[in-house]
Amino acid sequence: MLGRRLCVVKIGGSLLRDSKSYIESAQKIREVFVENGYKAIIVVSAAKGVTDKLVQVAKGSQEALRHIVEKYLEVAKELNSVKVIKRVNEELKRLEIVAGAINRSGVDLSLYDFLLSFGERISKILLVGALEATGVNALELHADELIVTNETFSDASIDYISTSANLEKLYSSIVDSPTIPVIEGFIGSTIDGRITTLGRGGSDYTATAIASLLNIDRVYLVTDVDGIMTADPDIVENAKLVRTMSYRESLEASLHGAKRINPKAFEPLEKFYSSKLIIGSWSKFGTEIVKEIPRELWGPKVIMNRASQDMSYMAIVGEGTSSVQFIRNVLEIIDRNGIEILGLQSYVHRPSLLVYVSSTYELKTLHLLHKELFEGV
């Protein structure tokens, strides 16, 4: 690898709000990775809020379409590149044509995924322009040519054999080239060339698939927070940063609503190569996710509340939380504080304990369990 360390870096949409943030992301890629000897393969998401707006466009919203056009054109113009402005304009015109076709014919799933793909496709053009504006030579890769999927539109799964073959063809040119490769997350295509999307948060899946198929040790998931927290900090003021988690713990947390990682992202890591996931912001990469953790690191990692109409549950996730001793400890805490539980759910093969309570006690139970289990009180 010519002395350069390969890594995959996914840039989340929360970081891509305007022209300033695209330039800032490009500068950080240069400072954090390029100047420290890393050969980073960049996986880019759509700009913040754009995918939601594209969903509205598919339902016929002209206002949402105008918002996307204005947002992406503004970024392109601020980058002050004739080439970037021209390419973004071309993509936006194609978007308008596709939107019109959907509005005339109703939602065809393949056309719907094609529409959604414009968020990432244009975002990639903008990030490549920002990288070049900051002195970093970028190599555009095209997800619809490299990432092969099945035909489950809007929630496609990657065909690892076909995708691996495509990536292997490019491997030497990626490694030997002085340029930084940039590819769209979230999108792929069927074997016959129809564009698909991988489900919300699918850029994580793109990143881990590329890393695992190319045996790359590290995947950086860059977002607007320092890592995974023990609870939602908007609800629990004393939420703490989780330093280390296993794949099982992180997957379980994502299944119960943790927003940081798409559950499908773990499949290629388990099947092919166990890359380390490093999650955080440009100022701090605070959480590492590895295949397995030593027994001394077992214990609760996160707690999440999930609400329904009349019943809620607390999902306590971490290796060892399904043990009899841990369940007994949680029951004692709840009993001491006079909270009535409606049920428990736990399986010996899953790292979680679900505590069902009346919605009346939802937030009280969340704060109480977080205080007892994570704050050392």
Description:
It contains twelve helices and 14 strands. The protein is of the alpha/beta class and 377 residues long. It folds into two domains: 5-223, Carbamate kinase, CATH 3.40.1160; 295-374, Alpha-Beta Plaits. The strands form three sheets. Strands 3-4-2-1-7-9-10-8 form an eight-stranded mixed sheet, sandwiched between helices. A four-stranded antiparallel sheet has the order 11-12-14-13. Helix 2 runs antiparallel to helix 3 and helix 4 (82-105) runs antiparallel to helix 5. The longest helix has 25 residues, at 109-133. The protein is globular, with a radius of gyration of 22 Å. The chain starts with a strand and ends with a helix. 44% of the residues are buried. The mean pLDDT is 94.
